[in-house]
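JOB MANIFEST
job_type = single_chain_structure
chain_count = 1
residues = 326
[input]
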Amino acid sequence: MEHYGFKGLVCVTGASGYLASWLVKRLLLSGYSVRGTVRDPGNYKKVEHLWKLEGAKERLQLVKADLMEEGSFDDAVMGCEGVFHTASPVLGPKSDPKAEILDPAINGTLNVLRSCKKNPSLRRVVLTSSSAAVRARDDFDPKIPLDESSWSSIELCTRLKVWYALSKTLAERAAWEYANENKMDLVTVLPSFVVGPSLPHDLCSTASDVLALLKGDTEKFSWHGRMGYVHIDDVARCHVLVYEDTSAWGRYLCSSKVLDNSELASLLAERYPSLPIPRRFESFLGDRPYYEFNTSKLRKLGWEPKGIEEMFDNCIASLKEQGYFL
């Protein structure tokens, strides 16, 4: 008989990823047993950071699963009371956005939910979506902050070839449709741009973009324009919170502060004068519409985010520790 943590067994998909690793860390610290899915549990270099987490040796299992393989998650989710689906493609498409980004996001989400449906122990599914599924639209009033009732425009995302936002929007819509049809308890978390320490040594695209900016290369951030930012640990805590709080329902925007590129650049250049961060840089997309996020729904559950300074302080300290600064 397997011994589970006092809070029971939960599953985290794509467990070795940037955000998922933090979620695994938070769940273990909270007393859960965690079954994480990865593409190759035997690839020690990709998963060693997970085995170093407190409680991992006693309460972590890693199992193999593939987003694009139907039924691949059946064994992983069986017996779990909660499933956190975080795995999703992020990298920009090289040639075929449908095959590289859209299909894995939508079909991968549905594959996980179909496996969840077969599990009689299931209490709730928490899906990681993105604020990109809220803010890519051109018909809102900039004076009214965007909230969970807003959805990105599929037509606009397609026309502008904003494949990441399109994949997140379509995957979340598909998840809601499936959950409603199958009376499944689903909650979705919509983080803005995630900043903070990376547990995996190999940086994901998000962490790589931040590192490049701190070294003076603004190219990736020049695609941002106006953007919300949030500390990675706040996003992990938000996932645990909406899973545990029985009153949680629907979508939850998870963001600390929204800034224009020029505001971010001047704040960072001033705070870290020894780094070659430019004092201002332009957006490739021209002026993006002004918007703010209304995160009162999440704050009502007791969630309070860290500020922009703390998320970048923690991120820089972690990058230095991992040897990314000379």
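[summary]
The first helix runs from residue 18 to 29.
DSSP finds 13 helices and ten strands in the chain.
exit_status = 0
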